[in-house]
C-alpha cells in the first residue's frame, strides 16, 4: 500500500509522474516510434497532441522562479557559504512543478517569446522575458531581472530529444547564470536530463537523471548534484544527492518531488532543505492575450491550448499543424529573400560561444 503525502503524491510509484495511456493513444505513439531508430533526434518528429503540456517551453522555464523568497533570502546572507547554499536550494526548488503524467511543453517556434512579472512581498518586482532564438538547433534564451534586489538570471537552453528504445530522453544542454550584483558573484548552473520511460511497454513515467552542478567562480564553491533514475529491479523514484565542496562542506539527499535534506559531512543530523509538499508557488503575472503580440506564447498557442483543455485532440492537432506550417512558410520566404532571422530581445554573445545575451543587459 502506498502512502500519500500532503500534496497527494505517493512515496512509491509516484502517480503524479506516471501515466497510463489509452489503447488508441498508445497505438498512435507506437506507430510513430516504429518509424524511428535508436538515437533519432525527436525534434524532427511531430509528436501527437495527447503528450503535450498546454504551455510553451518558454513559459515552463519560469518554474525555476516559482519560489523567489529562497533567492531573496540567499541574497541577504552576509556569509558566502550561506549565500551559496541558498542558491542551491533555489535551484532545486523548481523541478517539482509539472502537470500530472508525462507531458512535453510546446516546442517554441522561431521568434516566439514569452514575458511575465512577479510582485514580491517586500514591494519589489521581478521581470522575465524568453525568446526562441534558433530553430535548428532549437535554443531558448531567457533573462530575469529584479534590479531593486540586485538579482539577474540569464540562460540558454538547448534541449536535444533522443529516442532510446523504451524511453525518450531530453538532453539538456546549456544552463543558467545567476548574478548577485551586490556581492559581485555569479553562479553557473547546468541542468539534469529528462527521461520519459515506458513508451513501448509498462507505465509511462518522467524521471530526471544524470549529473549537473552549481559553481561560483568568485568563491570557489561548487555543488555537484546527481539526479538518480530508478533501477529496473531496485531503487526509488526522484532521488537526488549532492555535495557542496571546497573540501566537503555539506551533503544533500532526498527526493526533488517531495523533501530534500542537508547536513554537515560528519553529522548524523539532517535538516530539511526544501519541502515541495508544503512550499507555496509564487504566481506569475501575464498580460491578457488581447494585449499580447501575435507571436507571444499564450496568444500564439491559444487555440491548441483551448482544444487540449476540452480534450478535443483532432482540433488541437489541426491548430498545432497550422502553427508549424506557418513557421515553415516564413522560413521559405526568408530563404527566398536571402534574409536571416534577427531576435527581438537577444543577440549572439561576444564572450560565450554559441550562446545569446539579453540586448539591454549592460544598459
Explain this structure.
- The chain is α+β, with helices and mostly antiparallel strands and 363 residues long.
- The protein has a single domain (21-274, 352-358), classed as Porin.
- 20% of the residues lie in helices and 34% in strands.
- The protein has helices at residues 23-33, 57-60, 68-75, 80-92, 297-300, 302-309, 313-337, and strands at 18-19, 52-56, 104-106, 113-119, 125-134, 139-146, 151-163, 167-180, 185-190, 193-197, 204-216, 221-228, 239-245, 248-255, 259-263, 271-275, 346-348, 356-358.
- Strands 1, 4, 5, 6, 7, 8, 9, 10, 11, 12, 13, 14, 15 and 16 form a 14-stranded antiparallel beta sheet that branches. It has a two-stranded parallel ribbon with strand order 2-3.
- The longest helix has 25 residues, at 313-337.
- Residues 1-13 have low confidence and may be disordered.
Amino acid at each position: 500500500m502506498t502512502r500519500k503525502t500532503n500534496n497527494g503524491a505517493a512515496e512509491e510509484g509516484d502517480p503524479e509522474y506516471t501515466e497510463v495511456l489509452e489503447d488508441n493513444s498508445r497505438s498512435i505513439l507506437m506507430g510513430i516510434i516504429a518509424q524511428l531508430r535508436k538515437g533519432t533526434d525527436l525534434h524532427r518528429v511531430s509528436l501527437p497532441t495527447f503528450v503535450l503540456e498546454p504551455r510553451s517551453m518558454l513559459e515552463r522555464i519560469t518554474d525555476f522562479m516559482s519560489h523567489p523568497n529562497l533567492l531573496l533570502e540567499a541574497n541577504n546572507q552576509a556569509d558566502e557559504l550561506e549565500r551559496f547554499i541558498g542558491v542551491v536550494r533555489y535551484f532545486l526548488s523548481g523541478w517539482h512543478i509539472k502537470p500530472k503524467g508525462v507531458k512535453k511543453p510546446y516546442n517554441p517556434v522561431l521568434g516566439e517569446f514569452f514575458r511575465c512579472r512577479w510582485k514580491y512581498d517586500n514591494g519589489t518586482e521581478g521581470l522575465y522575458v524568453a525568446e526562441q532564438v534558433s530553430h535548428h538547433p532549437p535554443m531558448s534564451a531567457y533573462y530575469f531581472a529584479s534590479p531593486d534586489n540586485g538579482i539577474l538570471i540569464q540562460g540558454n537552453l538547448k534541449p536535444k530529444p533522443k529516442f532510446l528504445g523504451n524511453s525518450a530522453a531530453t538532453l539538456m544542454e546549456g544552463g543558467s547564470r545567476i548574478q548577485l550584483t551586490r556581492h559581485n558573484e555569479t553562479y553557473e548552473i547546468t541542468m539534469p536530463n529528462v527521461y520519459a520511460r515506458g513508451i513501448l511497454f509498462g507505465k509511462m513515467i518522467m524521471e530526471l537523471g544524470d549529473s549537473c552542478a552549481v559553481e561560483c567562480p568568485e568563491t570557489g564553491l561548487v555543488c555537484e548534484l546527481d539526479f538518480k533514475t530508478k533501477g529496473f529491479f531496485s531503487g526509488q523514484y526522484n532521488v537526488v544527492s549532492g555535495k557542496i565542496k571546497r573540501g566537503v562542506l555539506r551533503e544533500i539527499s532526498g527526493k526533488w518531488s517531495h523533501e530534500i535534506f542537508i547536513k554537515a559531512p560528519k553529522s548524523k543530523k539532517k535538516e530539511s532543505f526544501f519541502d515541495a509538499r508544503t512550499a507555496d508557488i509564487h504566481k506569475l503575472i501575464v498580460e491578457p492575450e488581447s494585449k499580447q503580440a501575435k507571436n507571444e506564447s499564450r496568444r500564439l498557442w491559444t487555440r491548441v491550448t483551448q482544444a487540449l483543455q476540452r480534450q478535443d485532440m483532432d482540433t488541437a492537432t489541426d491548430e498545432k499543424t497550422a502553427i508549424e506550417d506557418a513557421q515553415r512558410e516564413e522560413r521559405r520566404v526568408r530563404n527566398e529573400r536571402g534574409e536571416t532571422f534577427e531576435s527581438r530581445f537577444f543577440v549572439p554573445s561576444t564572450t560565450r560561444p554559441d550562446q545569446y545575451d539579453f540586448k539591454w543587459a549592460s544598459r
